[in-house]
Amino acid sequence: MQNDKDFTSSKTEITLQKGDSGTAVTQLKELLNAQGSSLPTDGVFDSATLSAVISFQQKHGLPVNGVIDSQTWTVLQHVTLS
After folding, report:
1. Whole-model pTM?
2. Does an H or E element contain 58, and which?
3. b or e along 22-48 (b: 16 or more beta carbons within 10 Å of the residue's beta carbon)?
C-alpha cells in the first residue's frame, strides 16, 4: 500500500506494516537507522524493516506486533528526535 504522508506533519496518525511503501516508510527507516539499524531508505516496508521494528518494540517494552502504530511512532520519534 502506498503511503506518501509525511510523519512529521501527521505524526502518529499513520499506521505502517509490511508491504507498505512511500515517504513515511522512508522516514521510518531513517529513524530506525538512527537507532542502530542499517536499512536502505528505499521506501519499502520489507522483511528487514519488519525485523528492525520488532527489535525496536522489544527493546522499548512496546507491544511486539511489527506494526508501526501510534504508540510505536510516539516512542520512536521521542527516542530519536529528542
Report:
1. 0.86
2. helix 47-59
3. bebbbbbbebbeeeebebeeebbbbee
Any residues with CB less than 8 A from the CB of 51 and at least 6 apart, and which? none
Residue with cell string 527493546: 59
**pLDDT tens per residue across span 44-65:** 999 999 999 999 999 999 999 9
Which residues share a beta bridge with 2? Answer: 21
Place of cell 504522508: 5
